[in-house]
Amino acid sequence: MSFKSINIIYWLTFLISIVILPLNFGLGLIAMSIIIVPVLIMHVSNGLKLKKIEKYKIAIFISTFNLLIFSLIRPDGVHAINENGLSSLLDVFHINAGYKREYENYFFIFSFILLLFQLIIELRLRKLVKNHTE
């Protein structure tokens, strides 16, 4: 796959993730913002220097799609946890996919694990960028 298409996929999935995150705004997003904001800043920083680490395509793809999956499964809501990112996104298009409350804990735990994994990936990519700058 060419670097240009990797770059396009990277930024497109990032924009989709940024749109999805505030769709189901709630206390969970505010509480997790301690980790989410630095992850997003590092994601942008790494994205601006993708050319330096273009040979690490697998790590870039993992970073790209992990952030999107996190945004889609993160449960939240206005005053109660009543939807996830996917159900919020589908609601914009007037598609009621429903939200299974019996899986609420699994969604939260898995999304938190994905967020921590994303933090680790971004730190590793940042290290690779710094190593290739010197």
From TrEMBL:
Membrane as a keyword of this entry, yes or no, is yes
Keywords for the protein's UniProt record, in alphabetical order: Membrane, Transmembrane, Transmembrane helix
| Membrane-traversing stretches | 12-44, 56-73, 106-125
What is the protein's given name?
A: Uncharacterized protein
